[in-house]
TrEMBL record:
PROSITE patterns (UniProt xref): ALPHA_GALACTOSIDASE
Reactions performed catalytically: Hydrolysis of terminal, non-reducing alpha-D-galactose residues in alpha-D-galactosides, including galactose oligosaccharides, galactomannans and galactolipids
Disulfide bond as UniProt keyword: no
CDD domains: GH36 (cd14791)
Native organism taxonomy: Bacteria, Bacillati, Bacillota, Bacilli, Lactobacillales
Name the record gives this protein: Alpha-galactosidase
Domain Glycosyl hydrolase family 36 N-terminal: 29-285
Domain named Glycosyl hydrolase family 36 C-terminal: residues: 650-728
Keywords assigned by UniProt, alphabetized: Glycosidase, Hydrolase
Annotated family: Belongs to the glycosyl hydrolase 36 family.
Transmembrane segments: none
Length: 740
């Protein structure tokens, strides 16, 4: 790995074994880009890649030169108004109303390691030799603004992270009306673009389409990253698939409004832009103030989509998630929500917990309904003290009884919200996001607290801090059940109203940071009506996320398959629930429900009191199975094999860190008359190694080229939605003699 600056050609070369990224100072002092992609050899210069030619209807930079235009030059952090007519990375409004800027190269520094992003989630390093960071300083002399573009190159990963930072050093106030995290210009447009879309209950479905000329984009203006779109896109070559070919993944480490856009110019160049959505955004900078954009993570893969995903998984598991829970086994939990909703008391909770103990559950979670007047979803949010009628011995009473059962105890909170029927609202009616002369929209009868305000922040912090310090809590599910509307704050002056969405998210991060620092033993799981805020920003604070409120095993195949494009199995809360499924009324077997949920942080979300003794016995076996192979599911290398978006037969596999155990999940959606015998070809095995499967020995190359033959396993009882989980153990010669 190295980052080199060539003083003569003014080129920066960033390269490691996997990728090269070449930047240069352009003739006008702006920063240009010459190459990003698979590793290429060191050249003394790549400036031959700059286009210098005359074209009609083109604006040139220098009066005596008809060869250099910004429109036909790949720029690093593009500006608008001086010759590049595409949408820019940023826009500054000066005090005279001008939106022009001219950021020229000033200086650079290269440091070992990776500096932290203050107040924002980010990927980190543990040792300085894991990465190098290049910071390039540019200056606009007219508005007296400095721009720092930061690039971190990881030594042994095909990963570059980027961010931008604006600092106003002049006396004049400026307003940033657009400040994306990056633009990246690519020289052609021969790509399919991939994104994860959906809605509540069907989050992160994979969408793939060829690029077309003009703009294609996804975004959120909902105040959170949202169920509808995820802050991630990838470009893949049309021939690339799950297992081979070139793919570039872009993941924004942010949880609020975002824009992810691909713009193909008439000249077939492609500009990828990602960052905070400019709609409604404006940030004022006074003298000495700084604006820091969120971080973008770029992964380059020449091993197809799985190659990209595996890099994201490793990076996010080990260098985004933090704290003791990063490396600890995630407990198997039972959550009482689907069993009870708001209808519970101490006796009911303890009866369910006792039952949970008998089957081996490790963590009991008491969901919504334990606080204030929370007997339904019209009341209580904002009042984070126990409802004594339901729970007379308080949270600690319940927690200690659950601890006596030798289980951990977890609790649900939704600290960003308030119901009008609450003490908090009655005392502070102006603490909602709202405009004083306009009505407010509600969602699930709740309103968003104006967390951008310091007094609101302090109140919520004090309440949750008290809750966590006075009670023996091991796990918190932090929910957020509505999108933001009327994002106006009576606390701020008119010049700061464009900052509210971002200030809100900054204070959500601040609240998380304070609580995880003070209570490091607590495992946090984020949630937003299921997976409405499943993003890397949240994972920096909460190591796992409730993947979706939709717990139907068949629907979950798509949700988990899509989520795995970016997010590791360990980060996905995956639970077995009752049938008929609450969301889609489908009947699936307990086996299939578990066979899907194993591929995540496993748990249950059903009423064990009503379960039959056969069901309880099966659940006990499932829990033992997961405990035996938890390290494989949570730490292993995951590969998607057959997609639920294209096939009737769905498959995925995970290989343990020591490569000794392989677990393959196979799901047959609809039974077919006179069905075919299928073969599932595995990936990533050692070709000559021997693997034991169902008492028979196979060679790695056999399993990868011929595959596992699927016959009777999926024909059981001739039913829809049959599944099977295969466990293969690698056997070394010294383990004994095997027949092959
Ligand atoms: C939405 C979550 O996704 C559910 O799991 C549950 O916690 C409810 N909120 C509680 O209100």
């Amino acid at each position: 790995m190295a980052i080199i600056f060539n003083e003569t050609t003014k080129e920066f070369h960033l390269f490691n074994d996997y990728l090269s990224y070449v930047l240069c100072v352009l003739p006008n002092g702006h920063l240009g880009q010459l190459y990003y992609g698979k590793r290429v050899s060191e050249q003394s210069s790549y400036t031959y890649l700059l286009e210098k030619r005359q074209r009609p209807l083109t604006a040139y930079v220098f009066e005596d030169d008809e060869s250099f235009s910004l429109q036909h030059t790949r720029q690093e952090y593009a500006s608008y108004g001086t010759g590049d007519f595409s949408q820019p990375a940023f826009e500054i409004i000066s005090s005279d109303g001008s939106r022009l800027s001219d950021f020229k190269f000033e200086s650079y520094r290269i440091v070992d390691g990776k500096p932290n992003l203050k107040g924002l989630p980010h990927v980190y390093v543990e040792k300085d030799n894991e990465a190098q960071t290049l910071e390039i300083l540019l200056k606009d002399v007219v508005s007296e603004t400095q721009l720092c573009l930061s690039y971190t190159l990881f030594s042994n990963k095909p990963v570059i992270t980027r961010n931008a930072r604006f600092t106003q050093f002049g006396q004049e106030k400026i307003r940033l009306s657009r400040a994306l995290s990056m633009t990246l210009d690519l020289p052609d447009s021969d790509y399919d673009w991939i994104h994860l879309d959906g809605a509540w209950g069907r989050e992160r479905h994979i969408s793939i389409s060829p690029l077309h000329k003009g703009i294609q984009s996804i975004y959120s203006l909902k105040g959170s990253s949202s169920s509808e779109h995820n802050p991630f896109i990838a470009l893949k070559r049309p021939q690339a698939d799950e297992h081979q070919g070139e793919v570039i993944g872009f993941s924004l480490v942010y949880s609020g409004n975002f824009l992810a856009q691909v713009d193909v110019t008439p000249f077939e160049q492609t500009r990828i832009s990602m960052g905070i959505h400019p709609e409604g955004f404006e940030w004022q900078l006074d003298n000495g103030e700084t604006f820091q954009t969120p971080e973008i993570v770029m992964v380059y893969s020449d091993r197809g989509l799985n190659g990209m995903s595996q890099e994201f998984h490793m990076l996010y598991n080990k260098r985004l998630v933090r704290g003791v829970w990063r490396d600890k086994k995630r407990p198997i939990l039972l959550n009482n929500w689907e069993a009870m909703t708001f209808d519970f008391n101490e006796d009911k909770i303890l009866a369910l917990a006792e039952k949970a103990k008998t089957v081996g559950v490790e963590l009991f979670v008491m969901d919504d309904g334990w606080f204030g007047e929370r007997n339904h979803d019209h009341a209580g949010l904002g009042d984070w003290f126990v409802n004594q009628e339901k729970l007379p011995s308080g949270i600690n009473g319940i927690a200690s009884k659950i601890h006596e059962l030798d289980m951990m105890f977890g609790l649900w909170i939704e600290p960003e919200m308030v119901n009008k029927d609450s003490n908090l609202y009655r005392q502070h009616p102006d603490w909602l996001l709202h405009h004083p002369k306009r009505s407010q929209s509600h969602s699930r009868h709740q309103f968003t607290l104006d967390l951008s305000r310091e007094d609101v922040y302090q109140n919520i912090y004090q309440q949750i801090h008290r809750l966590l310090s006075e009670n023996a809590i091991d796990y918190i599910k932090w929910d957020m059940n509505r999108y933001m509307t009327e994002a106006f704050s009576v606390y701020y002056s008119k010049n700061h109203q464009g900052e509210i969405f971002h200030r809100y998210i900054l204070n959500v991060y601040r609240l998380y940071e304070a609580l995880i620092t003070e209570f490091p033993h607590i495992l946090f799981e984020s949630c937003s009506s299921g997976g409405g805020r499943f993003d890397p920003g949240m994972l920096y604070y909460a190591p796992q996320t409730w993947t979706s409120d939709n717990t139907d095993a068949i629907e979950r195949l798509k949700i988990q398959y899509g989520t795995s494009l970016v997010y590791p199995l360990k980060s996905m809360g995956c639970h077995v629930s009752d049938v008929p499924n609450q969301q889609v009324k489908r009947l699936t077997s307990l086996d299939t429900r578990a066979n899907v949920a194993y591929f995540g942080s496993f748990g249950y979300e059903l009423d064990l009191i009503k379960a039959t003794s056969d069901e309880l016995e099966k659940i006990k076996q499932q829990i033992t199975f997961y405990q035996n192979f938890r390290h494989v599911f949570q730490e292993g290398n995951f590969t998607r094999l057959l997609s639920p978006f294209q096939n009737n037969l769905v498959a995925w596999q995970v290989i343990s860190e020591d490569e000794k155990t392989i677990i393959v999940g196979i799901y047959h959606l609809l039974i077919q008359a006179n069905g075919v015998a299928s073969r599932i070809q595995l990936k990533g095995l050692v070709p000559d190694a021997t693997y034991l499967l169902n008492g028979k020995i196979y060679r790695g190359n056999e399993l990868m080229s011929i595959g596992i033959l699927i016959k009777e396993e999926l024909q059981e009882n001739y039913k829809d939605f049959v599944s099977h989980v295969f466990v293969l153990e690698r056997k070394d010669e010294k383990d004994g003699n095997f027949e092959t």
